Amino acid sequence: MLRRVLALAIKELLAVLKDPKSRLVLVGPPIFQLLIFGYGATYDLNHVPFAVYDEDPSQPSRELLARFEGAPAFQEVARLRSDAEVARAIDRGQALMVLHIDRRFSRDLLRGMPGRVQFILDGRNSNTALLAMGYANTIVADFDSWWASRHGWGKPPVTLDIRARFNENLESRWFIVPGIAALLTEVVGLLVTALSVAREREAGTFDQLLITPMRPIDILLGKSIPGILIGSLEATLTFVVAVFWFGVPFQGGLAALYLGLFVFLLSVIGIGLMVSALSVTQQQALLGAFLFLVPSVILSGFATPIANMPALVQRVTYLNPMRYFLVVARSVFLEGGSARSLIPQYWPMATIAVVSLALAGWLFRRRLY
Question: Taking the alpha carbons of 352, 356, 357, 358 in that order, is the dihedral positive or negative?
Answer without folding.
Answer: positive
